[in-house]
Write a structure and sequence with these properties.
The strands form 6 sheets. A 4-stranded mixed beta sheet has the order 22-23-1-24, covered by helices on one side. The chain has a 4-stranded mixed beta sheet with strand order 2-15-17-16. The radius of gyration is 22 Å and the shape is globular. Helix 8 packs parallel to helix 9. With about 425 residues, it is an alpha/beta fold. It has 14 helices and 24 strands. The protein has 2 domains: about 200 residues, Enolpyruvate transferase domain (UDP-n-acetylglucosamine1-carboxyvinyl-transferase, Chain), CATH 3.65.10; about 210 residues, Enolpyruvate transferase domain (UDP-n-acetylglucosamine1-carboxyvinyl-transferase, Chain, Alpha-beta prism), CATH 3.65.10. The structure holds uridine-diphosphate-N-acetylglucosamine (UD1) and phosphoenolpyruvate. Uridine-diphosphate-N-acetylglucosamine binds next to helix 1, helix 5 and helix 6. Its EC number is 2.5.1.7. One of its GO terms (biological process) is UDP-N-acetylgalactosamine biosynthetic process. GO terms for molecular function: UDP-N-acetylglucosamine 1-carboxyvinyltransferase activity. Belongs to the EPSP synthase family. MurA subfamily.
């Protein structure tokens, strides 16, 4: 077991480069199951989650060639149509292979993903979509079985603009007969990246990035080469790292439009952000001002940035009100931040953060990916040493996290955690 040691240090300075987006590459890898032709993906981040979905694809019959930042995939035949518990339990996004399997093989058997630390995360909207496309859905022994002799285009209204349901349904619909229309679709940039990838393979998708997506089914897809978009959440995390340490950092490889909701709130908090040709330069001067945040589907403030922004507001001047509307249990970082001296009270889905002048280093535990990132951010400005355990969560979504932060002057390292004799 490893842990991260951070020492609150000087302002961060220099350039930091954002990697390809985890939440774009995962569905894109799943979509590669839709064709027998070779596909090539560029700007692929080296993340634990990418390793897991690659293993799922290989289990289903994919041949994958790995090069730094690149994956070449070929799926001549689907040798399996079942994604067992051992994969899905490691990563919920494995469930995204259901749509492609149904479209290409006419059947799929996938372990139910279950809940996770941040919420129960049901999959009813995915299944409602597949059923509307004509699939017969059955449950049993912890698995979902979906079968369809032929998928037929349909009108599907999502009760909530679920990112995963929009992606899964879109992937199933590209090979369906006729037109599918997804209403109240998620508008996240990762949906657009997936649609661009599918269209470059010959799919006919219009409206991705808006509330209504229309998909005209085609008989088959070709191979394609596609570069994954930069990770807006990783970028946002580094914007906060620069701001919280009152540093001066150029965060490179950003699509500025994707960061607008985060930039608007940082600006409101008094952080100076300057758009440059190759990124955003952050000047963190003066004390951060308290801000109110409500997480919402895109283009609202991303839930995946909520924990990191809470670390920032915990040392802001005045009170901040942070409301989480997307996941019902995404405040697990609060108790850990409190161990570092933050003053935070939770009332239902709202956290009331009373800014303090300083935090102090402590032993804390990452409970999920972004919670882990928020504790590291807090550690960057705490007095003394912070030890973050359970860092496998962080490895899911941040490529070279330690090395990148060291590159802008952070006093941070990864060490092997000593397990006391007789434990474990
Ligand atoms: C791999 C990936 O891209 N993960 C992202 C994706 O997760 P994911 O695709 O799982 O998130 P969704 O947008 O589906 O979930 C949003 C909300 O809808 C609910 N819901 C979802 C599906 C469903 O069938 N029924 C239902 O009730 C969920 O429980 C949650 O409360 O979008 C989230 C919201 O931006 C992000 O936090 C995750 O980082
Ligand atoms: C919640 C996240 O990811 P996932 O949906 O893969 O759990 C995240 O990236 O913050």
């Amino acid at each position: 077991m490893e842990k991260i040691i951070v020492n609150g240090s000087k302002p961060l300075e220099g350039n930091i480069r954002v990697s390809g987006a985890k939440n774009a590459v995962l569905p894109i890898l799943a979509a590669s199951l839709l064709t027998e032709s070779p596909t090539r993906l560029l700007d692929v981040p080296n993340l634990a989650d990418v390793g897991i979905i690659s293993s799922v694809l290989e289990h289903l019959g994919a041949r994958i060639e790995r090069n730094p930042g690149e994956l070449s995939i070929k799926v001549p035949d689907l040798t399996q149509t079942e994604a067992p518990y051992e994969y899905v339990r490691k990563m919920r996004a494995s469930f995204l292979v259901l749509g492609p399997l149904l479209a290409r093989a006419g059947k799929a058997r996938i372990s139910l993903p279950g809940g996770c630390a941040i919420g129960t995360r049901p999959i009813d909207l995915h299944l409602k979509g597949f059923a509307a496309l004509g699939a017969d859905i059955r449950y049993g022994s912890g698995y979902i079985e979906a079968v369809a002799r032929e998928l037929k285009g349909a009108k599907i209204y999502l009760d909530f603009p679920s990112v995963g349901a929009t992606e899964n349904i879109m992937m199933a619909a590209v090979l369906a007969r006729g037109q599918t229309c997804i209403e109240n679709a998620a508008e996240e940039p990762e949906i657009v990246d997936l649609a661009n990838y599918l269209n470059s393979m010959g799919a006919k998708i219009k409206g991705a990035g808006t509330k209504v997506i229309r998909i005209d089914g085609v008989p088959g897809l070709n191979g394609a080469t596609h570069a994954v978009i930069p990770d807006r959440i990783e970028a946002g995390t580094y914007l906060v790292a620069a701001a919280i340490t009152k540093g001066q950092v150029l965060v490179e490889n950003i699509i500025v439009d994707h960061l607008k909701p985060v930039m608007a709130k940082l600006t409101e908090a008094g952080v100076e952000l300057v758009e440059e040709e190759n990124g955003i330069r952050v000047y963190g001067h003066g004390r951060i001002k308290g801000i109110d945040i409500k997480t919402m589907p895109y283009p609202g403030f991303p839930t995946d940035m909520q924990a990191q922004i809470m670390a920032l507001t915990s040392v802001a001047e005045g009170t901040s009100i942070i409301t989480e509307t997307v996941f019902e249990n995404r405040f697990m970082h609060v108790n850990e931040l409190k161990r570092m001296g933050a003053k935070i009270k939770i009332e239902g889905r709202t956290a009331i953060v009373q800014g303090v002048k300083r935090l102090t280093g402590a032993q804390v535990k990452a409970t999920d990916l972004r919670a882990g990132a928020s504790l590291v951010l807090a550690g960057l400005i705490s007095e003394g040493e912070t030890e973050v355990s359970n860092i496998h969560h962080i490895d899911r979504g941040y490529e070279n996290f330690i090395e990148k932060l060291q590159g802008i002057g952070a006093n941070i390292r990864r060490v092997e955690e000593c397990v006391p004799a007789g434990v474990g």
